[in-house]
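USER:
I would value a second opinion on how I read folds in token form. Give me a protein, with the fold worked out from its sequence. Write it directly below this note and I will take it from there.

ASSISTANT:
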Amino acid sequence: MDYVIRVHASPLDIPAAAWDALLAQQDAPSPFMQHAYLAALHASGSATPETGWTPQFVTLWQGEALAAASALYLKDHSYGEYVFDWAWANAYADHGLNYFPKTTCAVPFTPVPGSRLLAVDATARQTLLKAMLEVAQQHQLSSLHLLFTSSDDRAACNALGLMQRQTVQFHWHNADLQGTPFESFDTFLASLSQEKRKKIKQERRRVADAGVTFRTSVGSAISTADWDFFYQCYERTYLEHGNAPYLSRTFFEHMQRDMPENWVLFVAERDNRPIASSLVAVQGLGCAEAVAYGRYWGALERVDCLHFEACYYQPLNWCIANGVQRFEGGAQGEHKMARALMPVPTYSAHWLAHPAFADAVERFLERESAGVDNYLDHLAERSPFKRQEPQ
């Protein structure tokens, strides 16, 4: 195919309408791959060369038509990725080699599976991936990494011989083991084992007994004052752990202005004062396959079990009431299984320029993959749902 390949130093250089039209054709679109989201990360200073995320977005064009596109970054660290390769970087350093800079195809600070290689067809997708590999080779970089990929992405990566890596996340589905959608939070609780049901009721009671209530705002109904309060909570969470927040207040100003329909805010209040909040992203609200994504939380006061109520029980109750089919709980966390978020595999793909290290990593990934499979089997035995009687 006669493609023109372009590399962009900013997502703002790519037409938003063309990018989003291409995203809508993919097997796993998400709000985090929308042009407005990626542009906000850049324009707000959250994901820029100054923070170690240098955009090298690669696009393929057929005449005036955008045939393929990727969010590619040059990285001089591995922060904000959630697929951990620090051991690989240390091994390079131990042998006097530079692992950084590297190239990463991902949504910064966002461990959400979805389409990474946006393309009109499989041919364009493979051509795009080849172009990304050429960028890494031309810059003499150590590696290329595609994080939290979709099925179509993985097929393209397999065709070009990239190594595949498997990790685990925890997702909730709005149906019982027979596939019947939950009618209410009570019917959801009724699907769980007595132990887990009792635990959730106890945790919710502690929050209610502490005098905490919640209000929910959706989309454009989230006021500027609510966004300000949310950011105060979000920033506090990072500062309590000794880090500056990844995302700036300006980033969320962009979200309020450009993507309001993709957000739901839960605010905890006590004595008519807000004390905590959690922010959830949504995709396809009102559609049959609507998805919610647990994203950010923070609290200004300590209340026992408030985190579980704000980040799980309030969002799950809202998902049931609004017909949302899946709630993705984000990276890591076996404790989520007690709230009926079940383990699912997630995937990434990797190319290393150094042949010996590529061989060593490939052997490591084979062992790691077997371990992840065993881990998933072990977790399945700990299901929080009622055990079905044999027929």
The domain at 175-324 is CATH 3.40.630.30 (Aminopeptidase). The CA atoms of residues 49 and 55 lie 7 Å apart.
